[in-house]
Amino acid sequence: MYAVALGGNTVILQAVRVEPSLHKPMYYLLSMLSFSDVAMSMATLPTVLRTFCLNARNIAFDACLIQMFLIHSFSMMESGILLAMSFDRYVAICDPLHYATVLTNGVIVGMGVAVTARSFITLFPLPFLIMRLPICRSNVLSHSYCLHPDMMKLACADITINSIYGLFVLVSTFGMDLFSIFFSYVLILRSVMAIASHEERLKALNTCVSHILAVLAFYVPMIGVSTVHRFGKHVPRYIHVLMSNVYLFVPPVLNPLIYSAKTKEIRRAIVRMFRRIKM
């Protein structure tokens, strides 16, 4: 799965970089998504391989904090990028005449900077909120990597602030992103239904299929692992482990497969790129 995630997303990044026909807002956003997937995979790779391949059972506290911050940051970046991609689809379908003037290269860069800044600023307090807690209960984590909900449960002090801040981050970022994506598709569907031709409707909706699948691949496992963490106290331990691995492994693996399979321009660019390499 790591090979597919790292290899597939790297191929998409390279294809967007070298293929002039992909130098468009939609594919710039796709390359940002691929970058966040690569970064997420690299953040979890050391501890997951040590745990499952080398049977290593320990991680230093500081290293755990860094990994926790990186995982949550790249996950939030991916959510923001999916929101930006939904805006791209909204403009392309609902206001196509102004697409080139609305989504300029400067706007795309601004979106990328805003998504990155939001992740860093919002999650910056998390390591410090964990550092203030005394760890005097079990020091056994539920996963093969470090997450904030898992780490704060190891403390033998009041974790109310951590819980409230974690819930605030979840609702104000991931929750608002998901709501905004849903609202954008309500507007897109309303615009598509106004198109007289059935073929034109299908053509317009087909441009959204890849993005919809990417949204489902990201949010469904995330909602599942959040639900298990908050309400699954009596759920078997292996369910926690399974859901957490699905949450971090599935999106980076599926995204390059989805976009390669559903987007003709990406497929053609990848084929041309490999042909040039062979020559």
Q: Rg, please?
A: 20 Å
Give the name of the CATH architecture: Up-down Bundle
- CATH-derived topology: Rhopdopsin 7-helix transmembrane proteins
Summed over residues and divided by their number, the pLDDT gives a mean of 88
How does the overall form come out from the CA principal axes?
Answer: globular
Which strand-content bin applies to the residues? under 5%
The structural class is mainly alpha
For the record, the CATH class is Mainly Alpha
Number of contiguous helices = 12
The number of domains: 1
Query: What would CATH call the homologous superfamily?
Result: Rhodopsin 7-helix transmembrane proteins
Number of strands: 0
Task: Write up this protein.
With 279 residues, this protein is mainly alpha-helical. The protein has a single domain, classed as Rhodopsin 7-helix transmembrane proteins (Rhopdopsin 7-helix transmembrane proteins, Up-down Bundle). The chain has helices at 2-18, 25-52, 61-94, 99-102, 105-123, 125-131, 148-152, 160-193, 198-206, 209-231, 237-262, 264-278. α1 packs antiparallel against α2 (25-52), α2 (25-52) packs antiparallel against α3 (61-94) and α10 (209-231) packs antiparallel against α11 (237-262). Keywords: Cell membrane, G-protein coupled receptor, Membrane, Olfaction, Receptor, Sensory transduction, Transducer, Transmembrane, Transmembrane helix.
Layout of helices and strands:
Blueprint: H1 2-18, H2 25-52, H3 61-94, H4 99-102, H5 105-123, H6 125-131, H7 148-152, H8 160-193, H9 198-206, H10 209-231, H11 237-262, H12 264-278
Helix pairs in contact: 1-2, 1-11, 1-12, 2-3, 2-11, 3-5, 3-8, 3-10, 10-11, 11-12
